[in-house]
Amino acid sequence: MKITLALAAGAASVLASPATGRNQFSESSYSAEDVIKRDFAIIGGGAAGTYAAISLADKNKTFTLVEITNRLGGHARTFTDPARGVNVDFGVQLYLDTPVVRDFFNRLDTPLANFNPAYFGNPNYFDFTKQIRVNNYSQGTLGTDYVAQLDRYPYLENGIDLPNPVPADLLLTWPEYIEKYNLGDSAESIFATPANPGDVLQDLALYMFNDLNHVMLQEDQGAAILNANYDNSELYVKALAEIRDNVLLKSSVTATKRGTDAKSGVKVVVNTPTGNKLIVAKQLILAMPPLLNNTKQFDLDAQEQKILAQINGKYYYGGVVNNTGLENGNGYINVGANTPYHVASLPGVVQFTPSSAPGYFFYWYNTLQAQTKSQVESATRDTIKWLQNQINGTSAVEPEFVDFEDFSPFHLEASKSDIANGFYRKMNGLQGHRNTWYIGSLFVVGTSQVWNNTKNMLPEIIAAAQL
C-alpha cells in the first residue's frame, strides 16, 4: 500500500501585503545590515527549497532563503511527545531508496531505515460516511496491465513534458481510461492510494500516471526507506542549523522587481520579524506553490499571470490524535461500501494509521472545500467515537488532538482544457524567464523526485547566475 504523502514537496505561501515606501527597491532606503546581496533568493523552505539551499552552499554559491513559517520542511511534519520523546510523522512518510535520497540524508548526517509495511498496521475497512464495516474488501495491487499502460508515457515519469498535441487518452478521467482499456482490479487499486486528494473519480489519467509512476511502484514493491527515528523533520532541523545565517524565518515577500535580462537580476523586499530587508540577487528560485494568489508580489507580467492563473491546488489536512480507544497495530481505512471503485465519500477522514509511538494515531482528511482546524477535528472526533463503538461497544474514551496541519494546496494541477492548450509546455517555457525559476511539486509529486528534479535543474540555474 502506498502511503507516501507526496505532497511532500510543497511549501507554504510566503507572501504578505505589498510593501509601502517610495524607494523600496533602492539600497539607500535601508541600513547597510538590511541589504542582503546574494547569488540567489530562494522563496519557500520545503523539500525543494531546502535541497536547493544545501546544494548551493556545497557549491560555494550564496543565497538567502525566505520561509513564512518558523521551520523548514514543508509537508514533512512530525509531532514529538514532550514527555516520552517519541515521534509521529504525519506528513511525508516514505522515500525511494535512490542515491539522491541517500546522499541527501548522509549529507545532513540523518539516519535511514528500510520500510516495513507492518509499521502502518493491519488494515481494517469501514465506510465512515455510512458508518458500516466493509467486509471482504481487497485493495488489490497494481499489476502488469497497469504497468503496460504506464510505459506508454515515459515523459510523465520524472515530470510532465507532454508532446504536442497532448494525447487524448491522458485527458480522460481515470474511470474513463479504465473502461476504454478494459483494465482490471490492479488499475482500480490506484483509487485506494491515501494521498489522492479531491474527487479522484474526476482525476485525469495524466495525473494518475504522473503520481503513481515507476518510482512509486518501486516504493510499493519494497524499495522504500524512511527516517530511522520516525522523524522526517530531523533532516530539515539539521539543514536549518547549518544554513541558519542565510534563512529568514517567519518572513514574507512584499514586493519584487525582476529584470528582463540576466545582468539586471532581481530585488526582493522581505518583511521579517526585525523589519524590512532588501535582497539583491542574480536569480530568483520559487520553491513554493506558484498559484496566482501566491505570486502577486512577484511583479508578474501578462504572460506569467495568464499561465499561473491556470494552476489549482486541492484541500488536504492531517493531524495526530492520542487516546483514541482504537486498537494499536490496526489501521482504519475509509472506503465506500456502494460507491464506484469503493471510493470514499467526501468530506471525511481518509484513514487512521498507528504510529511507532503506542497510543498515537495520525490521520488524513480529504475535502472539496476549505475547512477550519475546528471543523476537521470535530468531524474526525465523531468518526473516532463511532469506531470506538464498533470495536469496543462503547464510546467513553475522549480523543486528544495533539497536532494539526493544513497541507493545502495539495497536488497542483491544471484543467483538462488548459492542458490541451499547452499549459505544461508554456509553464516549462517560463523557466529562467525574467531571472526566475520554478522548482517543487508542480511537475512531480513525491519528495524523492522533487529532490532529483531540483538536482537536475540546478546546473542551468547556476549557469544563469554566471552570465
Automatic annotation (TrEMBL):
Signal peptide: 1-16
Keyword Acetylation part of the UniProt annotation: no
One matching Pfam family: NAD_binding_8
Keyword annotations: Signal
InterPro entries found in the cross-reference section: FAD/NAD-bd_sf
Domain of life: Eukaryota
Protein name as it appears in the record: FAD dependent oxidoreductase
Provenance organism: Aureobasidium mustum
Lineage: Eukaryota, Fungi, Dikarya, Ascomycota, Pezizomycotina
